[in-house]
């Protein structure tokens, strides 16, 4: 079981890393699954745009890209998050940077657990699961 966090942005540090690892592990285990290797990379808009173009043939900015390496009940993947996008979304949605960051962090794990967000129905279910996960985060304080 390994959850790692890295960044290519000078000055960015992720607070509460151990608590986040514990939180994500509880989310995975609540689905009857196991944490394999999950790697997070926190980057800027341009880096993620380049990855979006290169790997997904999408020419748009995004807050997250999830690469799924799940095998059966072993949840593994690489998750890239644009810190720039998280900041803009926090302003747009009227929440703190940290709250939006937590939402996006768990969003990636929910994708690895099989939750899509392409249709309106899937997106609504994703939001519901994000909210449930964020409540669990608050309970861990």
Write the layout of secondary structure elements.
Layout: E1 2-7, H1 17-30, E2 34-43, H2 45-56, E3 64-68, E4 74-82, H3 83-93, H4 97-112, H5 120-139
Parallel strand pairs: 1-2, 2-4
Antiparallel strand pairs: 3-4
Helix pairs in contact: 1-4, 3-4, 4-5
Highlighted features:
single chain; 141 residues; alpha/beta; Collagenase (Catalytic Domain); four-stranded mixed sheet; 5 helices
What does this entry look like structurally?
This protein has 141 residues and is an alpha/beta fold. It has one domain (2-139): Collagenase (Catalytic Domain). The protein is 52% helix and 21% strand. It is built from five helices and four strands; from the N terminus they run E-H-E-H-E-E-H-H-H. It has a four-stranded mixed sheet with strand order 1-2-4-3, with helices on both faces. Strand 3 (64-68) and strand 4 form a beta hairpin. The protein is globular and about 35 Å long. The two termini are 23 Å apart. The mean pLDDT is 96.
């Amino acid at each position: 079981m390994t959850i790692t966090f890295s960044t290519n942005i000078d000055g960015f540090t992720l607070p509460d890393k151990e608590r986040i690892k514990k939180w994500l592990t509880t989310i995975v285990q609540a689905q009857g699954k196991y944490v394999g290797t999950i790697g997070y990379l926190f980057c800027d808009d341009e880096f993620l745009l380049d990855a979006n173009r290169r790997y997904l043939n999408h020419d748009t900015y995004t807050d997250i890209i999830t690469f799924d390496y799940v095998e059966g009940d072993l949840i593994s993947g690489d998750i890239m998050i644009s810190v720039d996008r998280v900041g803009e979304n926090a302003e747009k949605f009227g929440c703190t940077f940290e709250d939006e960051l937590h939402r996006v962090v768990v969003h990636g794990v929910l994708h690895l657990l099989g939750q899509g967000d392409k249709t309106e129905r899937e997106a609504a279910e994703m939001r519901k699961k994000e909210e449930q996960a964020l409540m669990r985060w608050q309970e861990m304080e």
